[in-house]
Every structure is written in structure tokens, then in C-alpha cells.
Amino acid sequence: MGNNGKKRCTIWAVAGGKGGTGKTFVINNIAIQLAARNLKTILVDADFGGPNVHTYFGVKPGPRSLTDFFEKNVPLKEVVTPTALDHLHIIPGNVNCFASEGMKHTQKSKFLRHVRTLESDYVLLDLGGGVGVNTIDTFLVADKMILVLAPESTAIENLYHFIKNIYFRKLKTLLGLHGLRHIAHEKWKERQTNRVQDIRGLIESLREQEPEACLLITEELARFRVYLVLNQVRNEKQISIGFSLRSICAKYLGIETEFVGYVEHDAMFWQNINLEHPYVHFWKSPRLTDGIGRLTDNLIEGRQFRGGRVPA
Ligand SMILES: Nc1ncnc2c1ncn2[C@@H]1O[C@H](COP(=O)(O)OP(=O)(O)OP(=O)(O)O)[C@@H](O)[C@H]1O
Ligand SMILES: [Mg+2]
Q: How far is the CA of 137 from the centre of ligand 2 (A)?
């Protein structure tokens, strides 16, 4: 609760990995699915490097965007822009973009504070492909962290490293909160003599000195979860890639990953699209709505992919 007794919005964010895997495409479609379930949804284009959510929804850039929030101190709720779909609003990106990594810590905190107070059931953040600390820290505050994977070897490798990076960032933040960052850093530097092999080993090595803090950190890390969407699937065989990445993350990083579903590649997407009203195509393509509908339900319920239509 909080927020003057109003229910806090649920924040989902998409980020990570290689450009062009379909992050914007997937989060836009998820937003449409949530709105279709009568859940009030605000989609925020927080890809500071290349905002393009407005294009998908046929919303012309301006009159209001994140630029007004960052540069003119306009409250975030005032840049919420309607779309042609019921229950779905967007916050257009910062078209006069400055790189997100140039954003000051205070701006990032203010942005997150405002996002939390938006009056909506869901707030979805499209964070783009950045790997800088501002992007990662924003991603880490989401209630659900969604990653979009394309079935290509470089994209898989890339995403694995991204997951590792955000996990380390989370750990560093937790160590910092408990005043253990310095000592952990020393232990890690001397990991051969301390026989520390991985993150679990590192926390174990601090346990004797700081048992309470280590318990809290362990509990917090156990809650760390990423949600995986496989996009641009062209055949049934590719679906197993979602499960493979899940196993790799569990085996090598000890991280829980939920593979929530896949989206087929729709070769007709841009051919069929009406640039004035692009979302119409999202609705009409059963190839897309079927897969995204299922994975949206899985995300709401926090459960794994349970099978679906087999790509032709
Ligand atoms: N399942 C799909 N079927 C057909 N086209 C798709 C699909 N997913 C994505 N695309 C297309 O691929 C292109 C890249 O997608 P998108 O812009 O969503 O990628 P992105 O991951 O957000 O990229 P960036 O990292 O640059 O933000 C777009 O033209 C998009 O419409
Ligand atoms: Mg994008």
C-alpha cells in the first residue's frame, strides 16, 4: 500500500542483451494484452538511447514526453498520453535524448519515485539494450524483470552475460547496504587463497564475521528471479532454447529463471502494418496474440511456460 492508501502499481521492465531481439515489440504486445484484460496499463518508453514506443502506437512525438519531465520538471503523471486502446496509455520517450548514462543519480531516483506513484494497475518500462548502471539499477527495482531472447547463439551468450551482470550488481548493492562492500571486495580479490569460487562461496566466507547481514543477503538473493521470453521463434525446435538458458543460469549462476513463453516470428508484421494505427495488426495476428496472451498470463501468475501452439 502506501501512496496515500492507494494500491501501488505493479512494475514490469524489459531490458538487456543484444539490440533488435524484440524487447520493444514484446513489451508493447504485453501492454496490449494487459489492457485487453481491463487492467489499466501505462507503458513508459525509458529507452533513452532510442525511444520508439510512440511509433508502434501511432502517437506522433510530442506534445509531451519524458523530455518535459527531465528538463521542465513536469510531473510524470502529466506526460501520460492516451492511445487508441482502452486502458492503455504511454509515456513517450525522451526524443531530445541524452545518453542514459549521462543521467544523474538524483534524476534516476526522481524518475523511479514518480514511476512508483503512477495511478495504474501496471507500469511497464521499456529500458532498451543499455548495460550501464542507470539502466541496470532501474531494471532491478521492477517487480518483474523480463528478458527477451532471440534464438541466435550470439543473443543467447549476450543475455547470459547480462543476467550475470545484473546479478552481480544486485549483490554489490546489497553488500553496500550492509556496509560489507569493501571486505567482500578484498575477499574476492584474494579468492584463490580464501577458496572462494562463486557468489555463494563469497557470502559463506563473510558469514562468520557478519552472520545476520549474510542471512539477509542470502534471502534477498534467493528472491532474485528473471523472466525469459523467447521471441522470433521460427520452428518448434527453437522453443527448447528457453529451457536451455534456464538450465544454464541455474547451473552456473545459481539463479532462478522462469521461461514464460515464446512469440513467433511474424514475417508479415511490417507488410501488414498500417503506420497510422500499427496496433491494429497486433490484434489481428493470431500468431502474435496467442503466444503473447499465454505468456502475459504466465507473467501475471509467475509461472512457467506450459506449452502452446506449435509454430508452423
Ligand atoms: N516476433 C516478431 N515478428 C516479426 N517482427 C518482429 C518480431 N519481434 C520483433 N520484430 C521486429 O524486429 C525489429 C526489432 O524489434 P524491436 O525494436 O522490438 O527490438 P529491440 O530489442 O527493442 O531493439 P533495441 O535494442 O534497439 O531497442 C522491429 O522491426 C520489430 O518490429
Ligand atoms: Mg527497443
A: 18
